[in-house]
């Protein structure tokens, strides 16, 4: 029997901080993180002792107005960003809209936003919509993920990429691409939706210009948790937000008729902060206190390598869609099968929760804070049973809801 390690003890401790349902192996934290045990009490306290007892005074007395920056700084530690460079507000899509517009105007003599064909659709939609409405011949250009470096030229104003591909887990080389973009005179925006809390990120060290990401995946902030936005210090006071809302004003409660952007990262705020969601996310981040991301990443690699080995040995009909090189993928593993949707529904019915991405991808996320090696082996064994017995071949497993 293997000897327990220090990492086993560390991650047993973090697992105990989640309210995980009995009989479930949860491999979908790359879509929605599970509930940390302390969140419900925090939200209840905010509702009862702050909103209920303090009423509107809580904006000052309970520090509600400072939550966006406070939580931003906590996330900043997980993504290699200095204090005062990350703000929590709005959604990933809205934050991307803000920074993409800012970057285009900082590099206004160029016309191209460069992305890749594997990028998450909402990122591409935001870029399509924004470039179509800006003056001049702005355009979104997409290339295959492996062709990004070669496509960076002197027409590119902004390189806009998601570090970890949402379907396959393929990981871009942030340092190399950021360096190449800067050498060519372009700015860079990174979407960290599948990176923050899953692997080591060093925004300051790699010289990234802008970044965005969500709070509800590996950060476990709950469904619809607010997103975060990063702006490098060198850009903060030189950008004029297109979404110039009152909370991003230099003096919101002066109620000036004209907009003046707040100094620094505060200008990336728009409207009234979602206090209950911010409190939930803040509480969820407690699990990260004192956690070394290098240990999380090492454990992630152990889990994903184990899953690939177990599944490939037992399920020859499934084709690996993720990079085989652990350093070239994030904290997820994807397999392809033409009946992928039905297979996933059969797994969910047996207590193994992953998800499906069209057209044929079974997607499994591995969050070391609560996923154990024994969970990986059990999930692979159940998957083998489903495949060997064609247990997926039932009409109810082909019924699709609005969310897959």
Automatic annotation (TrEMBL):
Chain sites annotated for binding pyridoxal 5'-phosphate: 92-93, 120-123, 162, 191, 194, 216, 246, 272
* Highest taxon of source: Bacteria
GO BP, sorted A to Z? anthranilate metabolic process; L-kynurenine catabolic process; L-tryptophan catabolic process to kynurenine; NAD+ biosynthetic process; quinolinate biosynthetic process
- Alphabetized GO MF terms: kynureninase activity; pyridoxal phosphate binding
Question: N6-(pyridoxal phosphate)lysine-modified residues are where?
Answer: 217
**EC number in record:** 3.7.1.3
The record's top EC class is hydrolase
Q: Name one Pfam family in it.
A: KYNU_C
Q: In which pathway does it act?
A: Amino-acid degradation; L-kynurenine degradation; L-alanine and anthranilate from L-kynurenine: step 1/1; Cofactor biosynthesis; NAD(+) biosynthesis; quinolinate from L-kynurenine: step 2/3
* Gene Ontology terms: cellular component: cytoplasm
Keywords attached to this entry = Hydrolase, Pyridine nucleotide biosynthesis, Pyridoxal phosphate
Q: What does the subunit comment say? A: Homodimer.
The protein's job, in short, is:
Catalyzes the cleavage of L-kynurenine (L-Kyn) and L-3-hydroxykynurenine (L-3OHKyn) into anthranilic acid (AA) and 3-hydroxyanthranilic acid (3-OHAA), respectively.
- Similarity comment: family membership: Belongs to the kynureninase family.
> What is the name attached to this protein's record?
Kynureninase
Organism listed in the record: Hoeflea marina
Lineage of the organism: Bacteria, Pseudomonadati, Pseudomonadota, Alphaproteobacteria, Hyphomicrobiales
């Amino acid at each position: 029997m293997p000897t327990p390690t220090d990492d086993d003890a560390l991650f047993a401790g973090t697992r105990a901080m989640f309210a995980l349902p009995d009989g479930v192996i949860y491999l979908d934290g790359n879509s929605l993180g599970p509930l940390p045990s302390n969140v419900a009490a925090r939200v209840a306290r905010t509702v009862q002792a702050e909103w209920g007892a303090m009423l509107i005074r809580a904006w000052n007395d309970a520090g509600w107005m400072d939550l966006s920056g406070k939580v931003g700084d906590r996330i900043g530690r997980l993504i290699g960003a200095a204090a005062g460079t990350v703000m929590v507000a709005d959604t990933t899509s809205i934050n991307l809209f803000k920074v993409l517009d800012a970057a285009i105007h900082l590099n206004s003599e160029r016309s191209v936003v460069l992305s890749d064909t594997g990028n998450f659709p909402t990122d591409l939609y935001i870029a399509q919509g924004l470039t179509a409405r800006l003056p001049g011949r702005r355009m979104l250009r997409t290339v295959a993920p492996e062709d990004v470096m070669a496509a960076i030229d002197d027409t590119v104003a902004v390189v806009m990429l998601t570090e970890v591909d949402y379907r396959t887990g393929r990981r871009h080389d942030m340092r190399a691409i950021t360096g190449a973009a800067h050498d060519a005179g372009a700015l860079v925006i990174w979407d960290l939706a599948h990176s923050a809390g899953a692997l080591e990120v060093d925004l300051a060290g790699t010289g990234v210009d802008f970044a965005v990401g969500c709070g509800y995946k590996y950060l476990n902030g709950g469904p619809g948790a607010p997103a975060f936005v990063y702006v490098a210090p060198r850009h903060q006071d030189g950008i004029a937000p297109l979404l110039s809302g009152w909370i991003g004003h230099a003096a919101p409660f002066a109620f000036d008729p004209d907009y003046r952007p707040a100094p620094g990262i505060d200008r990336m705020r728009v409207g009234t902060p979602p206090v209950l969601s911010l409190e939930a996310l803040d509480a969820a981040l407690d699990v990260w206190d004192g956690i070394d991301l290098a240990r999380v990443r090492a454990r992630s690699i152990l889990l994903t390598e184990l899953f690939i080995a177990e599944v490939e040995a037992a399920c020859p009909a499934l084709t690996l869609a993720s990079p085989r090189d652990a350093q070239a993928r994030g904290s997820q593993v994807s397999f392809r099968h033409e009946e992928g949707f039905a297979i996933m529904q059969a797994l969910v019915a047996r207590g193994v929760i992953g998800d499906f991405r069209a057209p044929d991808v079974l997607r499994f996320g591995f969050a070391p804070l609560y996923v154990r090696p024994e969970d990986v082996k059990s999930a692979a064994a159940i998957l083998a049973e489903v495949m060997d017995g064609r247990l997926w071949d039932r009409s109810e497993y082909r019924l699709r809801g609005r969310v897959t």
